[in-house]
Amino acid sequence: MKLRKILAVVNFDKPHHESAVERLRAWGKAHQVGIVIRAGIDPQPPAERDFDLVLTLGGDGTLLKGARCALESDCPVLGVNLGGLGFLTSVAEAHLESALDRVLAGELRVERRMRVEVVGEISALNEIALVHAHASAHTEIELFFNEIPLARYAGDGVLIATPTGSTAYSLSAGGPIVEPTLEALLITPLCVHRLGVRPLICNAARTVRAVARRPALVLADGDPVRELAPNDELIIRRASRYTQLIVLNTDFLEPLRHLSWGR
Question: The pTM is what?
Answer without folding.
Answer: 0.94
